[in-house]
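User: Structure tokens for both sequences below?

Assistant:
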Amino acid sequence: MRTPRSSDVAEPSSECAVTKFLIHTPTSRREVPYFRPSIGEEEINAACETMRSGWLTAGPRAKEFEDDFGAFVKAPYTIAVASCTAALQLALEAMGVGPGVDVLVPTMTFASAVAVVVHLGARPVFVDCDPATLNMDVADLERRITPKSKVVVPMHFAGQPCALHEIRAIAEHHGLRVIEDAAHALAATYHTEPIGSISEVSCFSFYANKGMTTGEGGMIAATDEDLARRMRFMAYNGINRDCLTAAGVKRWWKYEVVAPGYKANMTDIQAAIGIQQLKKARRFRDERQHCADLYRALFDMVPSVRAPVVLQGLTHAWHMHVIQLELDQLRIGRDEFSLRLEEMGAGHNVHYLPLHMHSYYRDTFGCRAEDFPVAMSAYDRILSLPIYPGLADADIEYVVECIAAVADQYRR
């Protein structure tokens, strides 16, 4: 597995606000939540106006949101759906995934991204992660390809684009198709290209803690017209509305079910919120970048903590800020470290327990911990820290002070 060279690692994108910071044990306790949503009056008013309009389900606001989002990510086809999970399922189905098919998926991801493979009757084939970025490891990807492999679903972990050029080259060589799990990657770019404009299909999430939100919801960005057409009617019960009556005219009640589809459309209420959130999406990403820059500057003074690696040529979306503890320098493990932070009010989370170690996948597919050594080693060390628009510098400083204090107390 390739370790990034110093020339690969990006410098902070902007100057941090910190000029001097002394690590010390916090003298007063404060509560810093792991996440807080960024919803303004614009979103509230838009949702209320939509409810007053009498059009609540998929309608003009959903179409407007799709158009706006397509322009944002430079994708020719966009479909607003109920969730990123629904987006992934629709994409896999459109590519012919079903019984007898293997789908290559990261083990370091959220459960729903792999559950959709199982729902379609296919077999998930897990791929280990890169030790620095925690994205899908391209060398392990190539090793895991089977004669039944049809699709690879790389996920942009925490918001850093994965090695798309390498993944696409492997996919083309082996006749695979690529679906990007872009749940974390709104406003990210890969060598100046927006995530959403590169692969045949990219799937975004608008869950509450994502780069922008509609509460629940997702979006499919596609570059292939035939795939987009299939996903659109499958998202609404497999209904084709391009039907004519016997008199040769279109009527709203004339339609044909061409496949047993899903009920996965986004409502206009959600879309109205999304239209307003999308206007703020780049500002949200820039505020997350500021948080990341401040964390990086502060962690330069904290031993026993490995800050996230950001590779050059990429714009990181910073959905998550994931540090790794240097456990060989500490007398406690990650779980006890987490308890100490919780006692101090420093919000945090862990993303993720590798999927191959969840009981269903472990028992159903015979997965073993040692099959994916990098993911298992990383899981024991990772902590996700607060990062969101509106997070105060003082709160970031407090979180780092708490981490430094625990690390100092339990240093070997």
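Moving on to the next sequence.
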Amino acid sequence: MLQQTLQRLAGIDTVSPALLVCNESSRFIVAEQVREIGLENSRMLLEPMRRNTAPAIASAALHAMENGEDPLLLVLPSDHVILDTPAFHRAIALSRTAAEAGNLLTFGITPTGPETGYGYIRAEGAPTGSIQRVLEFVEKPALALAEQYIASGEYFWNSGMFLFRASRYLEELERFQPAVLAACRAAISAAKSDLDFIRLDKDAYAASPDIAVDYAVMERTSHAATIALDAGWNDIGSWKAVLDVAEKDASQNSTLGDVLIQDCNDCLVHSSSRLVTAIGMRNTVIVETADAVLVMDADQAQQTKTMVAQLIARERPEATMHREVFRPWGSYDSIGNGDRFQVKRITVKPGAKLSLQMHHHRAEHWIVVSGTAQITNGDKEYLLTENQSTYIPLGVVHSLANPGKLPLELIEIQSGSYLGEDDIVRFEDRYGRA
């Protein structure tokens, strides 16, 4: 969906390379997603911790103005579905003049029914396809109130997408939430470049209040405007929403991956790593990944938040970690573990190199599955190819690189008294982690 959001920008006049704002823990998977679709000029602003959308947008606006420019900012969440891209582009073009005149534009989604999972925007006058003044923003309503909103014809769904000039957003933010702007200015001023990443200063950014852009600015400004957008929009906030927009069979089932179903209706069955079968299910969501399995009534999709809260309260690693972990040099997948051992499948991108490092508590065996590995093992350097292996004793300085033009895949077997990722002493690293 991140890739689709970026690709959706193609065809918009005078659009600059995208600026992505993400948590620093997501930086490598985001970079890999961008690389896969060939957007080499995109920049990435890294948040050291979550502070919600108002500080994130403020940091992006400040960065965009660093060279004396004052561009229009098109603010897009990365988890939306928009089926009619030309209609989306037309709405942006119609909004440009109003944004250039100092208005803060939000895209109001033409509602298709009394949805209780979205916030609403009440606009001045009936929707006409032109720019309208925003009268109020409304929180997610109960069903009866949502039905009243739809019947009145005065309300849009709140999309969370915006268009405004960078300086105008910062002016309104300074008026209503000066502490947010002050923290973001300090975080940008002390930011450090790291490869393609721009790292916001941690201490400065931590001082910002945690607040959404709607609460900080849009609900308080007198310059909020909206335009109707009817483009097959969906905010994929739950697995039920995924089922709603997915392609379905004659029984209204949607399947993905290695799935076999029998006598099922209105079901979503998603498999990532193994065969999943279902028999006689109705209105059910089944999601299998290498980390965990979720089974629920589709109408209870909003309750996943409470389940995640339980996982966090019980300190379950599934709430915060994935088996597959992305790094600047590639990725690794923890495919097995037990008492004093762990097995990983490692993929190294062509031309990439892991840091020169050592471990205090574990030894490692490397077995090349495909490609060519350039090994540093103590004072020795050598090449390994398919089906060859090597042993790295505990405490020995070592490194791994891919000198070839194809991805290098190998199996790593770790053994020792402690196998945590923090048992790494880096001596040199081309990615600035030493």
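User: Anything stand out in the second?

Assistant: Residues 428 and 434 are 5 Å apart (CA to CA).
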